[in-house]
């Protein structure tokens, strides 16, 4: 009886360790794909914040106007066919003219009229207020995405 319990306990421990490893590997793959996506967008532009709609204490949706640079928003759609670990990833929603909307996880640090500099090459989102840097965050950390199940079969 003791021998059977020890064997079952060993199997349970090994199973738990394998599941934990699977979760860590999957999360690492998600993070790597977000970095790849942020770099592949090749966004280099600045925008002025028009309004902020908070989702919770920290994150929110930012409505802004592009004032410098020429972001090629079509890149987000063209990269969607290359996802391996995400179902969906996006950063910018384009509106009419130079108006855009994006989500930032640190929107609580923003004010109307602040400037935002998005740089894929530096993997950075920088917020300026009256010429002074207010906040900097990784651009890849601002990508919104939903991952696939780690158990999904590749076709």
Tag the structure with descriptive keywords.
alpha+beta; disordered C terminus; seven-stranded antiparallel beta sheet; 155 residues; 2 helices; two-stranded antiparallel ribbon; single chain
Short summary:
This protein has 155 residues and is an alpha+beta fold. It has one domain.
Strand content: 35-45%
- What is the number of E strands? 9
Low-pLDDT parts are 148-155
For the largest beta sheet, what order do the strands appear in spatially?
4-5-2-1-6-7-8
Q: How many separate domains make up the residues? A: 1
What overall form do the CA principal axes indicate? elongated
Helix-strand string: HEEHEEEEEEE
The percent of residues in helical segments reads 25-40%
Structural class: alpha+beta
Largest sheet: 7 strands, antiparallel
Give the number of helices. Answer: 2
Mean pLDDT: 78
- The CA-CA distance between the termini, in Å, is 44 Å
Write the layout of secondary structure elements.
Blueprint: H1 2-41, E1 44-54, E2 60-68, H2 74-79, E3 86-90, E4 92-94, E5 99-104, E6 115-119, E7 124-129, E8 132-137, E9 144-147
Antiparallel strand pairs: 1-2, 1-6, 2-5, 3-9, 4-5, 6-7, 7-8
């Amino acid at each position: 009886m003791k021998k059977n319990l020890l064997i079952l306990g060993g199997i349970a421990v090994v199973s738990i360790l394998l599941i934990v490893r699977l979760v860590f590997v999957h999360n690492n793959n998600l993070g790597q794909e977000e970095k790849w996506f942020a770099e592949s967008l090749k966004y280099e532009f600045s925008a002025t914040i028009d309004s902020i709609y908070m989702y919770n204490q920290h994150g929110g949706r930012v409505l802004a106007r592009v004032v410098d640079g020429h972001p090629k928003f079509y890149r987000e759609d063209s990269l969607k066919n290359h996802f391996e670990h995400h179902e969906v990833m996006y950063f910018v929603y384009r509106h009419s003219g130079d108006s855009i909307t994006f989500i930032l996880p640190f929107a609580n640090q923003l004010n109307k009229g602040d400037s935002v500099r998005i740089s894929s090459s530096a993997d950075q989102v920088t917020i300026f207020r009256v010429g002074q840097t207010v906040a900097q965050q990784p651009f890849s950390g601002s990508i919104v995405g939903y991952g696939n199940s780690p158990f999904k079969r590749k076709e």
